[in-house]
Design a protein that fits this description.
Elements: E1 2-5, H1 20-28, E2 32-36, H2 47-52, E3 56-58, H3 60-66, E4 69-71, E5 89-92, H4 100-109, E6 112-115, H5 130-147, E7 169-173, H6 177-188, E8 192-197, H7 200-209, E9 215-218, H8 221-230, E10 233-236, H9 251-255, E11 262-265, E12 286-289, E13 292-295, H10 305-334, H11 336-341, E14 342-345, E15 348-349, H12 352-358, H13 365-369
Parallel strand pairs: 1-2, 1-4, 2-3, 4-5, 5-6, 7-8, 7-10, 8-9, 10-11, 11-13
Antiparallel strand pairs: 6-14, 12-13, 14-15
Helix pairs in contact: 5-6
Length: about 375
Amino acid sequence: MVIGVPREVKNNENRVSLVPAGARALTEEGHTVLVERGAGLGSGIPDDRFTEAGARLAGVDEVFAKADLIVKVKEPQPAEYARFRSGQILFTYLHLAPLPELTQALMKTGVTAIAYETMADASGSLPLLTPMSEVAGRMSILVGAYYLQKTLGGRGILLSGVPGVPPADVVIIGGGVVGTNAAKIALGMGARVVIVEASPKRMQYLDDIFGGRVVTLASNRTHVAEALKRTDLCVGAVLVAGARAPHLVTRDMIKGMKPGSVIVDVAVDQGGCVETTRPTTHTDPVYEVDGVVHYCVANMPAAVPRTSTFALTNATLPHVLALARHGFKEAVLASDMLRLGVNVYRGRVVCRAVAEDQKLPLGDLAEMLA
């Protein structure tokens, strides 16, 4: 198989979808790896590292034209839509639920689109989303602490406080991977932390691992609203796999927050769990609504690409190898995880969450494969 690794074109997306070790593993099995020139530079990987591993450098046109399997980090951008062709496999983060234009483009081209973020294992966890959720969760507190500075529009609060002055209050909406990692950093920096979580079992787990150092609240409108009135930094960490995130933080709740408080909505990839969220970029990351600073960058881990690239490719490479070895049909039939990752196939949406959010007919992947 020919595997194509294009350079990412999303704003300040410095990650790359394959590292030299992955290229070597593929070429040693007889596959051809085409890497767009400069694809790894943002992650500190020069072109010659790929060629030493057996990959071949190419221009973007050749990468898309010749590759059977395109491996990316982020969802295709409008300039890339026309490069895909029928039957080609795309393996990347897609987050289609809030992106109907991209969904239509993938359906029109006939590309087979497999999304990292909907690949679930037997326990229901999302192994290909987890490493970037860990990065984004930890970053959310660092970013929030930065924008709490008065010179950047924040309240002028040091997250840790100092002797004689209390620390900042942090509210995390959602106690999954993002929320847990955000809490680790917030506690480490000395903040007072509240996690709002829907699952009683998960609240018990959080109480155990943090030894009672965080306050857990059952997720409901009253608890969220009351917590937001007291908070200095709110982290949106809600995830419904494959689906648009619910708006648990409303505009009315934001009006009740302290002036200069900060919201970091990590759920922005899936539409955001804050009603006033709109996607921003690393170039222009923040905006203000009702006196509250919003940071809603849709590719947060791209700011630390060296860490993120290696963490991501550790998780994705085994599945890239499986697709290359067996082809799409055999690989998907042999792997429930890959099957759950398929979002678009033969011009139809086959992921239930995406179909329901966009009110599209749901294709039956098993029937189509048969």
